[in-house]
């Protein structure tokens, strides 16, 4: 009976979104739509009535989805990825929408206006099921955001994604490290894990922390003030495999708990989108063009680290099968944004319901049992 009610709810939500709500939202330019949705979400989740409505429409929970990763307990493995909530404003909405966790940010040490062209820094690519992003790390800065969140009680685990302020074209190692450290210090008592974003494709000084020496210096500074909280490093989608291995080696040397795979895909290194949809030639793509790359990265990293590092997989997750493929390839947790934009806010609940069925079908009692199950590790030679 419960399953029937959930199926009917899902059917109504999905079609309402597809045929009425999305066409209306898509009348606005994407950056404006993003801001309006956040304003609406904030208003809805600011009071008991609004939160109850969201919960009735979208919430889903099942014991087999509970998982513990690096001592943090998650109700389910589906989280919001960084970039949707750049100022950490919608914490009250995510649990009701069925998310198991949410990653805020990227936050930067200084206030960051982002790239020029406010209101025109996102581009929809609907045939490619993708969004071209040219935001450039706009956020209110670590001080202001941490001050607002410092006494907040979160209902689900919160990731704090730290990036380096995108204010100058020159890279100065010490200043850049100080910028990350400012955010980590400001958020030292806020949230449940840190993501160190070394892979924003829209910054003026490119991705200098993908270099071994720079990354080592950053992680050394972080380790000097390390707490119990897990730290994950977010990698770019389009690195050479030897660069990925170098980054992993440095992360393992500094005992970083895990990696987030991956950030947006740059069109110049990608062939998995409909070419005529690329009307703006800066920025990088989310969604389907990233799906296969992210999964390949998960498979590689799981094997390279022999399953010893936590993997948060993100990129082109639209349904339960997509999420399960990443989990069985080696991911402990999943994040998403684009699937929610194209398919609606019921999609997290649908993915979670689908995951329960997929686990059952394969005879697993928990997400943890399924992690890496279709990516068996080769035996080590003596
Ligand atoms: C509008 C938008 C803004 C983003 N901003 C950030 C960001 O500030 N920091 C970050 O680490 N990733 C950012 N990302 C990348 C996402 O976190 C994620 O890695 C990527 O979108 C792939 O997931 P998806 O296919 O489910 O959207 C952004 C993505 C989108 C769509």
Walk me through the topology.
Layout: H1 2-25, H2 30-45, H3 48-58, E1 67-69, E2 72-74, E3 78-80, E4 101-107, E5 122-125, E6 130-133, H4 142-149, E7 158-162, H5 173-186, E8 193-197, H6 212-224, E9 231-235, H7 241-253, E10 258-261, E11 284-285, H8 288-304, E12 310-314, H9 320-329, E13 333-336, H10 338-343, H11 347-361, H12 367-370
Parallel strand pairs: 3-4, 3-13, 4-7, 7-8, 8-9, 9-10, 10-12, 12-13
Antiparallel strand pairs: 1-2, 5-6, 6-11
Helix pairs in contact: 5-6, 6-7, 8-9, 9-11
This protein binds flavin mononucleotide.
Describe the structure.
By secondary structure, the chain is α/β, with parallel strands linked by helices. The chain has one domain (2-370): Aldolase class I (TIM Barrel, Alpha-Beta Barrel). The chain contains twelve helices and 13 strands. It has helices spanning 2-25, 30-45, 48-58, 142-149, 173-186, 212-224, 241-253, 288-304, 320-329, 338-343, 347-361, 367-370; strands spanning 67-69, 72-74, 78-80, 101-107, 122-125, 130-133, 158-162, 193-197, 231-235, 258-261, 284-285, 310-314, 333-336. The strands form three sheets. It has an eight-stranded parallel barrel, surrounded by five helices. A three-stranded antiparallel sheet has the order 5-6-11. The longest helix has 24 residues, at 2-25. The chain is globular. The mean pLDDT is 95. Bound molecules: flavin mononucleotide (FMN). Flavin mononucleotide (FMN) is lined by residues 81-83, 86, 105-106, 122, 131, 133, 135, 137, 161, 197, 200, 234, 263-264, 286-287, 290, 314-317, 336-339. Residues 81-83, 86, 105-106, 122, 131, 133, 135, 137, 161, 197, 200, 234, 263-264, 286-287, 290, 314-317, 336-339 line the site of flavin mononucleotide (FMN).
